[in-house]
Design goal:
The structure holds 2 protein chains of 2 kinds.
Chain A: H1 3-8, E1 16-25, E2 32-42, E3 47-51, H2 58-65, E4 73-78, E5 93-96, H3 108-118, H4 123-136, H5 152-164, E6 170-174, H6 182-198, E7 202-206, H7 210-216, E8 219-223, E9 230-235, H8 250-266, H9 272-275
Parallel strand pairs in A: 3-7, 3-8, 5-6, 6-7
Antiparallel strand pairs in A: 1-2, 1-4, 8-9
Helix pairs in contact in A: 3-4, 3-5, 7-8
Chain B: H1 2-25, H2 35-47, H3 50-82, H4 84-99, H5 102-112, H6 117-141, H7 145-153, H8 158-194, H9 201-211, H10 215-243
Helix pairs in contact in B: 2-10, 3-4, 3-6, 3-8, 3-9, 5-6, 5-8, 6-8, 8-9, 8-10, 9-10
The chains are: A alpha/beta, B mainly alpha.
Chain lengths: 277, 247
């Protein structure tokens, strides 16, 4: 199935628009500029991958979309119409953080059920749904464990289950699989792709892996070094579902090369000596 | 089992050293009674009902004062932790109340509040308040900012944030304050009794020391206070173990 075909089907997602967004953090001696004039349109139901050098403001960008951070200048809009401002916790955005951010005193099950119980769902209703969500990501047996007893990868998966449980129209994933081993990561990329094809909500995925970017995305957004803005947008028009390895696929190889070239261009010069190794 | 053995061994060593001190210095019982003299006096005081009569009064004051003081302290500490404005406004008064010697305040409070149980519970609660309130304030502020942001992203209300994130995060520190608080509650009860009471272990100490010249009985009262302190501290620790998730 092509991307066009996926887009034509009804999307469960909302579009996101960023217009000349800049973010500055107060810091001494000079303010820290995380984003500068970032303009980006994310179509409803698209799967966008953000990639860029360390510290280029990828996580800041996600926090701006989630409404957790108000841009210093510039505008953000979610959806069409009047109530387009992002608002933290209004239920339109699901976030899976880089650090899983589980409550250490709650079981894995109750952590995954947290978005439901915070909305006032009774535990008798929330717990079975959380158990379902855990079963689907292969953590069913870990439901009663405390986060301290989960491995890094298990904790990240629990964080993802928590982000998915409310079925939000926009899903922001900040390196959600970075703690998983390569094979498990590929399996989860495949699972995420399948989930998204079933119901194409708007997904923004931050990663450091070029191959993950090529496999997952409709388009790859390459960011500049800090202060971050959009350096290049590379469309990825490959048929889905895409297999774990795209080696031997000429089009994929071309996108891979273009992405690496764009990354090399934006790389901070002080790291250049390591690039060719 | 090993821990119990170690505890008993250290107790035996303490008693032996005490006994040795009285024998070696030849100190008379009215200055430093030997442990077996205190024990014998204790058995008599228990048998006659004298000890329990006074212990019950003091224990009541301690438990009520501790409960009232700790509950107020946790509520006020939460408010202090959540609002810098409230902290600015209230903290001078709280620090002042803590800095004024409770020994000087106790007679006043005794007069103001009618000299009964209420006055003594208030004095006891006042001395307990400070460490628990400060611990709660510090604990509330120690909530992980990443978890606070996660709660925001899930649309948690301020009340939910307090009840389901900040207070659970603060519990280990609050229990630290409670441990200090229980031992202060014992001191608070005795000070309150000295300010004006007709019964209680503090009163018993005064009677034995200055009225009856019964130093062994005074030691019986002191040992009882120590046992109450150790017991309550142990109770707090065991609740802490149950409540706080070990990771």
């Amino acid at each position: 199935m092509t991307i066009e075909a996926a887009r034509k089907r009804e999307t469960a997602g909302l579009p996101v628009g960023l217009d000349a967004v800049s973010v500055q953090f107060a810091a001494s001696p000079t303010p820290l500029e995380a984003l500068r004039g970032l303009t980006l349109d994310i179509p409803a139901g698209s799967l966008t991958v953000i990639i860029g050098p360390n510290g280029c403001g990828k996580s800041t960008l996600l926090r701006v979309i989630a409404g957790l951070l108000t841009p210093t200048t510039g505008a953000v809009r979610i959806g069409e119409g009047t109530d387009g401002l992002p608002l933290a916790g209004d239920g339109r955005v699901g976030l899976a953080f880089q650090q899983p951010r589980l409550l250490p005193w709650l079981s894995t099950l109750d952590n995954v059920a947290l978005p439901l119980t915070l909305r006032g769902a009774p535990a008798t209703d929330a717990r079975p749904r959380a158990q379902d969500a855990l079963d689907r990501i292969g953590l069913g047996n870990a439901a009663s464990l405390l986060p301290a007893h989960l491995s890094g990868g298990m904790a990240q998966r629990a964080g993802l289950a928590r982000a998915l449980i409310t079925d939000p129209p926009i899903l922001l994933l900040d390196e959600p699989f970075s703690a998983l081993d390569a094979l498990t990561r590929e399996a989860f990329d495949g699972e995420l792709q399948r989930l998204w094809m079933d119901r194409p909500r708007t997904v923004v995925l931050v990663t450091h892996s070029v191959s993950e970017a090529v496999r997952m995305s409709d388009r790859i957004v390459v960011m500049t070094a800090r202060p971050g803005s959009v350096a290049r947008i590379i469309p990825v028009d490959l048929p889905r579902p895409r297999p774990a390895t795209l080696a031997g696929d000429g089009a994929a190889a071309g996108i891979d090369t273009a992405t690496r070239a764009a990354l090399a261009e934006v790389h901070p010069p002080e790291l250049a000596p390591w690039l060719d190794r | 089992m090993r821990r119990l053995a170690a505890t008993l061994l250290s107790l035996a060593a303490f008693l032996a050293a005490w006994k040795l001190l009285t024998v070696a210095t030849g100190t008379p019982d009215y200055i430093l009674p030997a442990p077996e003299v205190v024990a014998e006096r204790g058995v008599r005081a228990i048998g006659s009902g004298l000890l329990w009569e006074h212990t019950a009064v003091t224990l009541t004051e301690i438990l009520l004062g501790l409960t009232a003081g700790a509950a107020t302290a946790i509520a006020v500490g939460t408010a202090l932790g959540k609002s810098v404005v409230i902290e600015r406004v209230l903290s001078p008064y709280i620090v002042a109340a803590q800095s004024v010697p409770i020994l000087a305040l106790a007679p006043l409070l005794d007069i103001w509040f009618g000299g009964g149980l209420l006055a003594r519970v208030l004095i006891c609660g006042l001395i307990v308040f400070f460490p628990i309130a400060i611990a709660t304030m510090v604990g509330i502020r120690s909530a992980d900012p990443l978890l606070v942001e996660m709660f925001r992203s899930l649309g948690a209300t301020p009340g939910q944030r307090t009840a389901r994130l900040e207070i659970p995060s603060a519990l280990p520190v609050i229990f630290g304050g409670l441990r200090v608080g229980v031992t202060l509650a014992v001191i608070g009860a005795v000070v309150a009794e000295w300010a004006g009471a007709s019964s209680g272990l503090g009163v018993l100490i005064n009677i034995a020391d200055q009225g009856l010249f019964d130093t062994p009985l005074m030691f019986v009262a002191l040992v009882t206070l120590a046992v109450i302190g150790i017991g309550l501290h142990g109770l707090v620790v065991s609740i802490e173990r149950r409540v706080i998730v070990q990771s």
